[in-house]
Amino acid sequence: MFGVVFPNRSFPLDSSTFTQIDTTHWLLDMNHFVGESYDSIREICIFLLNSFTLPPDKALALYIQSPGTPFLYCGAITLTRPSAVLSLPWPDPSTGDAAQLQLTAPDAPPLSAKIGVSVEDLAALTSLDVTADRKIERLALKVGENLFNFMQSFCGVDGSKLVVPMDILDRWFKKFQERAKRDPEYLKGFAL
């Protein structure tokens, strides 16, 4: 049905490596795969196998779960996007339920991190790659912050309004472009 690869960490693993919960849900226990160092796995490539046909209105959604935390949606693949490399932003288990579980049952074996895969309605998913959307949002915020700081150095105050020269956007954009041409590392500083 599907397969996964942990870039630079594994060979391709098919869905039989996962425990099938029912006809639309699979779980991979990270303890069996990497032990307690699950958070060192930062990316996963998930792909549809050639013989599997996913209905056009469905997607294979990928979730991660740190010990004692709820599942976190990371992204999905579809027939039109049959593979994807997704970031794995593991939730911090030292907050919330995980910390409470450790306090109430210190001798209990630690819960394990899991990766879940689920067949879901494509229309119900907010995004196919959550982390990429967050990166774009952070990039836009950093560029906006750069523009604001530039404008602030040229503005005056008129009551509760900022007054800036009419050509401020042109001046900022020219400066931005010139700096990017001179220093290729400059733009990399905006991407996280």
UniProtKB/TrEMBL annotation:
PANTHER family: HIKESHI FAMILY MEMBER, PROTEIN HIKESHI. InterPro entries: Hikeshi-like_C (IPR048364), Hikeshi-like_N (IPR008493), OPI10 (IPR031318). It comes from the Eukaryota. Residues 17-125 form the Hikeshi-like N-terminal domain. Residues 136-188 form the Hikeshi-like C-terminal domain. It comes from Penstemon smallii. Belongs to the OPI10 family. It holds the Pfam family Hikeshi-like_C. This is Hikeshi-like domain-containing protein.
